[in-house]
Amino acid sequence: MKFIKIAKTALILVYLVVIAGALVRMTGSGMGCPDWPKCFGYYIPPTNIQELTWTENRLFKKGQVIIKDKQLLVAKEDCITGKNFDSKQWNKYTKHDYAKFNPIHTWVEYINRLFGALSGFACLFMAFYSFNYWNKSRLIPVLSSLVVFMMGFQAWLGATVVYSVLNPVKITLHMVMALIIIAFIIYIITLADAKSYSKKSDLTFRNLMWITIIMTFIQVILGTQVRQFIDEQVKSGIENPTLWLSNPEVTFYIHRSFSILVLVTNLFLFLRNRKLSLGFKEMNWVLLLLVLEILSGIFIYYMNFPFGSQTIHLLLASILFGIQFYILLQLKQKNIPN
């Protein structure tokens, strides 16, 4: 039971990272900390620009960052500055040339990293305790260890996102990896939970459930592409939300229209579940989440991106994916008559 609690805690923390990551992207805080894993060379980031400004007779620790002449400079060693700036004490930061400071962006990104670290430690504890199942099911410790590896890979992806100055492809891959980690942890919990049991299903329900999960996965990716387009609009100087989707790319229309197909297929599963008495109460949640997801999308578009709406939109999609995957894990490879 202790292992299951740890695994569920890890799952919740990963979802919190998804929320934090969505807030980072919504607020444009992805470069709030231009280095990694520290933030401007600090374990606790600065709160005002003065902390990143060169001044005389000030102690700087090795690795701490300042912004000077619109570029990042990194202290070579511990040093106390003199009356005049000494370039020999500093190295130019070479990972990228982004040298801006916004305290709100910095702390939003920092909190995102804190949740990432907490979820990483939770997954590490999960892997440690999973070896209690070694004699019962070696798959549990193997998968738990794999999750730790994936969390490390996810952290590395986060670093590459920063170093690339928010490359859209890497951001999408970062989100996809989060969903994969969620799926693995749910699978581990299902394997370890003695109360979990498989349910009968007909072939149509099982196959269509696979299709709907893939569709949800695709929708999330399409959503990140729409968000990418919005980011590009903001970068081009369009700050008015009413204009962000005034002339959208085809991806937006695919994302919007595809949601109808996702709803229809899941509605079919919901009705089939009731008709055949398959016992998947989770389908009620699936349908509710889908309705809320579509409504939130409509709300975002017609209300011009209210604060927090995009985060809720992504969170609902992530929870939907998790529940659909949980249902899939309960399916038996057994057909029942229509």
TrEMBL record:
UniProt GO molecular function: metal ion binding; oxidoreductase activity
Localization in the cell: Membrane
Gene Ontology BP term (one): heme A biosynthetic process
Signal peptide limits: none
Keywords from the named record: Cell membrane, Disulfide bond, Heme biosynthesis, Iron, Membrane, Metal-binding, Oxidoreductase, Transmembrane, Transmembrane helix
Membrane topology: Multi-pass membrane protein
Known pathway: Porphyrin-containing compound metabolism
UniProt superkingdom: Bacteria
Ranges that cross the membrane: 110-131, 143-165, 171-189, 210-230, 250-271, 283-305, 311-329
Cellular compartments per GO CC: membrane
Pfam families registered for this protein in UniProt: COX15-CtaA
Alphabetized PANTHER family for the sequence: HEME A SYNTHASE
Record protein name field: Heme A synthase
Species for this entry: Flavobacterium columnare
